[in-house]
Amino acid sequence: MQNSEFAKLFYEISELLELKNENPFKIRAYQKAARNVEDLSKNLTEIYKSDGLKGLEEIPGIGKNIAEHIEEIIKTGKLKKYESLKKEFPRGLIELTNIPGMGPKTAIKLRKELGIDSVKKLEAAAKAGKINNAANILRGIDLKKRSRGRYLIDDAASHAELIVNELKKIKGIKKILPCGSLRRGQETVGDLDILVVSENPGPVMDAFTRLPYVKNILAKGKTKSSVILKNGMQADLRVVPEKSFGAAAHYFTGCRAHNIHIRQLAQKKGWKVSEYGIFKGKKQIGGETEEDLFEKFGLQYIPPELREMRGEFEAAAKDQIPKLVELKDIKGDLHMHTKATDGANTIAEMAEAAKKLGYEYILITDHTKSTRVAHGLTGKEMLGHLGKIKSIKGIKVLAGVEVDILKDGSLDYPDEILKQFDLVVASIHSNFKMPKEQMTARVIRAFQNKYVNIFSHPTGRLINEREPYQIDLEEILKAAKKYNVAIEVNAHPKRLDLTDIWCKRAKELGVKVVVSTDAHSTDQLQLMKYGILTARRGWLEKKNVLNCLSHDKLLKSLHAK
Ligand SMILES: [Zn+2]
Ligand SMILES: [Zn+2]
After folding, report:
1. Subcellular location, in the record's words (predicted)?
2. Distance of alpha carbon 125 from alpha carbon 128, whole angstroms
């Protein structure tokens, strides 16, 4: 079982306990466990196999009770507590609690008062105006429908990695490449497309369809197979000979519109392009590598993240494909939490972990007092916390804060406190439901504060869970430029906020961007790669991303306010 599946189970238990009106501490314990498990880089089953219950209990947020749950699931494939809890409520009611904007309390109330026990009935009641907040609930239902079958990129990436690691063991495999939207770095992924180069496909097909993560086999052929994985995701495998690798990689990476365009270019030349190569008549004239494929069309190489029909062909024809930012260009992470608020590790632990990633600096940014759910600190507490930030040998630890932008655009701390930080990150954690103009003005007012340097998770969206708040990003970017505020690309796979399209716009407007993880544990520092994918999809180069600068230059650039 994957960590994401354990996490899902714990979230569900917390919701069931809420339906039952259980002790809030108990509910929160499951939520915390779910969050921490979700973002763990090591597999829970492996931890248990090597270190047993003790190993599990060492994970932040996992106590004895939950460690025993994990053990039971690993041993029996089931959890008795969950099964019996589930029996206490009708299925429809449980589904209701998964609709964004609906909590267990509302679900119970609606069931009691209106007999609503399914999403269908909820939708009908909302449309008939029978319930409060109907517009919001309809949006939630719509979001849920749209997100069905879409997996977060880290979830897709970890499943692809499992498959690749298993297939690698087979003799005769020369190359394995996960393609599709995962390779393009899209924020959600529908299914996995795995490409393999081998002159002997039989054993590859056998191994693929027998993987332990496979729930059922949809098709098994000589060179292609499709399966449904245990998490519900579809995975397709394709085996091609070496001479077709480039054309196949290109074909299976997409996007569809990009591929159609390549085929049209081929037609104009009297050629044909398929997953097997570029052909003139029956003769293959190209496509052994992707580089070769683009070259045959007189095009510069187009990185997978740009293959979205957003101007990449025009740029490639003019040799104007940018040299995109890379993970190795990042010199520091500018958004993270510690034990002082809702993080799982100490400042020193975060610094050590960042040092291992080869960073030159980090910025510690704990929450301020208004974010009560995250135990935000008062000004006095924060100054005490700051006193603990000392440079660890080999890495610069900067004192920062994630200060709440209040309803009227003022900040949660007065200037006397804000001026004591190296950098100030500002963000919105409350009063999401505001008209667009008001929200935009609120944020711009915060930008005018001379101590605000970075605007974090600019739209507040949570992918598949929460729509962005209403905000005029065009105006926000222009104001960011005017007041010298950098805009964050939050690298957490649930956020990826700013989005790719807006990254591109920020670049056009000359707005500074930072890519940060918002890590709540040492493990989450590794989420940087997903933010980089989004930045690359937004055509960003090293020079557009401020945390590619050394620490002196970074501070100089942001302090010019
Ligand atoms: Zn935040
Ligand atoms: Zn944060």
Report:
1. Cytoplasm
2. 5
Q: How many residues does the chain have?
A: 561
Q: Which ligand is nearest to the CA of 428?
A: 1
CB neighbours (10 Å) of residue 288? Answer: 17
Q: What is the per-residue pLDDT across 141-198, written as a single tens digit (0 to 9) for each?
A: 888 887 778 999 999 999 999 999 999 999 999 999 999 999 999 999 999 999 999 9
Q: How far is the CA of 54 from the centre of ligand 1 (A)?
A: 32
Which residues have CB under 8 Å from 416's CB, separation 6+?
A: none
Omega of the bond leading into 498 within 30 degrees of 0 (cis): yes
**Which ligand is located closest to the Cα atom of residue 405?**
1
3 state DSSP class of 189: strand
Tokens of 73: 């699931």
The per-residue pLDDT of the chain, averaged, comes to 93
Judged by phi (left if over 0) then psi (alpha if -120 to 50, else beta), residue 115 lies in left
DSSP code, position 469: P
DSSP lists the bridge partners of residue 214 as 229
Cα-to-centroid distance, 426 and ligand 2 (Å): 9
CA of 426 to the centre of ligand 1 (A): 8
Measured in angstroms, how far is the CA atom of residue 456 from the centroid of ligand 2?
A: 8
In angstroms, what is the span from residue 456 Cα to ligand 1's centroid? 7
- Residue 428 CA to ligand 1 centre (angstroms): 7
**Cα–ligand 1 centroid distance for 427 (angstroms):** 6
Q: What is residue 455's predicted lDDT score, i.e. its pLDDT? A: 98
**Domains in the chain and their CATH numbers?**
3-147 (1.10.150.110), 151-240 (3.30.460.10), 245-317 (3.30.210.10), 327-559 (3.20.20.140)
Neighbours of ion ligand 1 (CB under 5 A): 427
ipTM for this prediction: 0.98
What confidence category does residue 202 fall into, taking pLDDT thresholds of 50, 70 and 90?
Answer: very high
Q: Regarding beta strands 214-220 and 188-189, do their DSSP bridges make them parallel or antiparallel, or are they unpaired?
A: unpaired
- CA proximity to 333, closest of 515, 69, 472, 542: 515
Residues 6+ apart with CB under 8 A from 268: none
Cis peptide bond prior to 255, omega within 30° of 0: yes
User: Residue 143 is inside which H or E element, if any?
Assistant: helix 134-147
Strands lying side by side in the sheet with 173-178 = 173-178, 192-198, 234-240, 224-229, 214-220
SS3 (DSSP) at 177: strand
What residues are neighbours of ligand 2 (ion), with CB under 5 Å? 402, 518
Distance CA(32)–CA(30), nearest Å, equals 5
